[in-house]
Structure to design on (235 residues):
């Protein structure tokens, strides 16, 4: 297995047929409207801070309404692509577990789909780092993985299908390090809300019911496949 940095430098943020390999490997075009609504909800929650830090921004930094956006990632390929996709941003190469920033120097911070790729024993350090450099609020999109029992039960048929496909072709999905801590672990740092209740399998299986999921998912933060950790430093 490649290291996370090697994967993003050499594979994840390269393009195939105009699309990033990472998106082709881990996401589908299904449920675009639902995914957009989840993003929009987070965008509204964040509002328009003076300076938003998007840490582990990847190739496509968060589409925020911030007055200024500082984008950090440890992959040089991510940073080079991010510059093209968000030309008005500011860019720094850096590691989330040791941010090259002073205490309280950004207004708010967002970090999406990353901390679960950090070594399980360093994830708390990553959260402490984003908290240290932030003045007001941090928003962390996590992946509950095996802890999202309800979603996992609801998507069992597709999981079994994917598992059998992987047995036949072990390279059908490229693997990078992943470790999901429990909701309880996450809750020690702040409040848990919902970013997105369903995972990709759920979006495929319940594509006709996404309107209903959108209506109820905010009531199910500790069942969400992608919980949103909100840390308010002024509380
Ligand atoms: C799944 S991508 C998410 C990118 C982006 N936040 C998004 O939601 O599209 C994970 C990103 O985190 C970056 N990353 C992983 N570990 C990191 C670390 N320790 N420090 C900084 N960036 C990291 C990777 O280089 C990659 O760009």
């Amino acid at each position: 297995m490649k290291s996370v940095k090697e994967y993003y430098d050499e594979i994840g943020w390269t393009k195939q047929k105009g699309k990033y390999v990472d998106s082709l490997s881990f996401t589908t075009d299904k449920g675009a409207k639902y995914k957009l609504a989840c993003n929009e909800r987070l965008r509204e929650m964040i509002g328009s801070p003076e300076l938003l830090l998007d840490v582990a921004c990847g190739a496509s930094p968060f589409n925020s309404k911030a007055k200024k956006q500082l984008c950090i990632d440890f992959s040089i390929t991510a940073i080079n692509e991010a510059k093209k996709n968000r030309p008005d941003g500011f860019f720094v190469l850096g590691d989330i577990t040791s941010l090259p920033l002073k205490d309280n120097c950004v207004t708010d911070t967002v970090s999406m789909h990353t901390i679960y790729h950090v070594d399980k024993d360093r994830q708390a350090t990553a959260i402490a780092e984003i908290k240290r450099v932030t003045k007001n609020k941090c928003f962390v999109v996590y992946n509950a993985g095996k802890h999202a029992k309800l979603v996992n039960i609801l998507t069992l048929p597709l999981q079994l299908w994917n598992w059998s496909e992987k047995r036949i072709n072990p390279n059908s999905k490229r693997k990078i390090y992943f470790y999901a801590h429990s909701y309880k672990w996450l809750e020690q740092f702040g409040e848990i809300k919902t970013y997105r209740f369903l995972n990709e399998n759920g979006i495929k299986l319940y594509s006709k019911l996404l309107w209903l999921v959108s209506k109820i998912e905010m009531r199910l933060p500790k069942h969400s496949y992608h919980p949103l950790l909100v840390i308010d430093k002024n509380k």
Observations:
- The two ends are 41 Å apart (CA to CA).
